[in-house]
TrEMBL record:
Keywords: Hydrolase, Manganese, Metal-binding. One of its GO terms (molecular function) is metal ion binding. It comes from Acanthamoeba castellanii (strain ATCC 30010 / Neff). This is Exopolyphosphatase. Residues 246-429 form the DHHA2 domain. One of its GO terms (cellular component) is cytoplasm. It holds the Pfam family DHHA2.
């Protein structure tokens, strides 16, 4: 598709924003870093880029200090080398013509130095709680736009907080941009390319508005319809339809055949520091979202437990989970296994007779000597997971070798993603220990 005026405006903004990174700054300059979460999925990247663009022409009231130069810089919260792992993001930004070479990645900006000089302001997008290694920047948080559970943090510094249970953070960003775009006095330009850019994460996060996904509401629908009108008004053909966009993004998202096990585990990875009840200890839990089945992974990796052990050690974890997500048209055995498990467990089945088109599996891992606190914690975690009625897990394999403990599951409820799993663990498992 041809690049439009809106995409050109964003590219000019990105090139301008990059000049505030790496070199000396005037003492009167304030840098407003607009940053997505540390997983940096498509939603975080699109939303932080577009919200920063919006703020560059419409600064947040109450966040501007007289006599200061204020600059908005979108920062992608992963090292630049990791961007190639976000295959669907690489494709979408390239397809609409946004120049990601001008992006600033987290390893290219010294947030600590800006913070120490009092020149840093933070806008959190697609999360409302700083990662543990960034929590010392808490007093710089001035704005939050998110769709996850509201942690109600940073009350003393936040000027504006928008946390709503929509399907995608891009929905909230898009609605603000659409409102600005409709104002003749606004400098915001929203063309078909930017509309497609915003529509991408909305389609992915709502599973293309699948009725049984339970992942969208009226605001998601309203944003989607408005963006679709902009695309249609530009005369986009069938090849650029929302359905075609969703299908292509799904294909690119799960296009991980060439990735090593380490890249699979770090492609979409988050860490959580969860406290055992009573504050007895903090547990460092890593959860990787892996975009292929265990079987497909095993076809390219001869020793999955060894690969898990390497990542576990590299990240210094106490527990590691890998939550696979994949489309599989030939999975009658999977469906039958889940039904058999449910039948023998006297539980009701959510598996339709015609099978599922979307599947999840779960892998639990720890490396700890017999009698170690983490070995005991792992045993309790496995017991909790297997009894949890929301997950509907079916153990398919397990292994204990030289301190490595790994359990593989088919997951009967494919709706339980990492976003859903983490609060289940925090509120139902760790809080009960």
């Amino acid at each position: 598709m041809e690049r439009g005026q809106g995409v050109d405006a964003v590219n000019r903004f990105l090139a301008h924003a990059r000049q505030f990174v790496g070199g000396p700054l005037d003492a009167h300059t304030v840098v407003h870093v607009v940053m997505g979460n540390e997983a940096s999925d498509l939603d975080s990247m699109v939303s932080s880029t577009m919200h920063a663009y919006h703020r560059s022409v419409s600064p947040l009231a109450g966040a501007i200090t007289a006599g200061k130069t204020h600059s908005y810089v979108p920062v992608i919260n992963i090292p630049r080398q990791d961007f190639a792992l976000r295959t669907e993001s690489v494709w979408l930004f390239e397809s609409v013509g946004v120049d990601t070479r001008s992006w600033v990645f987290i390893d290219e900006i010294d947030l600590d130095a800006l913070h120490e000089r009092g020149q840093l302001r933070l806008v959190l997008i697609d999360h409302n709680k700083l990662a543990s290694h960034q929590k010392h920047l808490a007093d710089a948080v001035e704005e939050i736009v998110d769709h996850h559970n509201n942690e109600h943090l940073y009350a003393s510094s936040v000027v504006r907080r928008v946390v709503e249970p929509v399907g995608s953070a891009a929905t909230l960003v898009a609605l603000e941009l659409l409102e600005a775009h409709s104002d003749d006095a606004s400098a915001v330009v929203l063309d078909a390319g930017l509309a497609r850019l915003l529509m991408g994460p909305i389609l992915l996060d709502t599973v293309n508005f699948a009725a049984d996904s339970a992942r969208f509401n009226e605001k998601d629908t309203r944003a989607y319809e408005a963006l679709k009108q902009i695309i249609a008004a530009a005369g986009e053909g069938e090849g650029q339809s929302p359905q075609a966009l969703f299908d292509k993004l799904q294909a690119e998202k799960f296009n991980v055949a060439s990735l090593s096990s380490r890249d699979l585990l770090r492609k979409d990875y988050k860490e959580f520091h969860l406290h055992i009840s009573g504050g007895k200890r903090s547990v460092k839990l890593g959860i990787s979202s892996v975009g292929q089945s265990i079987e497909a992974w095993a076809a390219n990796e001869s020793d999955i437990p060894a690969a898990l052990a390497k990542w576990f050690a590299e990240q210094g974890l106490d527990l590691l989970l890998a939550n696979t997500a994949f489309f599989d048209q030939q999975k009658d055995q999977f469906v039958n296994d889940v039904k058999q498990f449910i039948a023998t467990s006297n539980k009701s089945s959510d598996v339709p007779d015609d099978g599922l088109s979307f599947c999840r599996q779960l892998v639990a891992f720890v490396e700890a000597a017999e009698g170690d606190a983490n070995a005991q914690l792992f045993a309790e975690l496995v017991g909790f997971l297997e009894k949890n009625q929301e997950l509907k897990l079916h153990r398919t394999a397990s292994e204990v070798t030289q301190g490595r403990r790994v359990v593989f599951y088919d997951q009967g409820n494919a709706k339980v993603s990492r976003k859903v799993l983490e609060p289940i663990l925090a509120q139902q498992f760790f809080a009960s220990l």
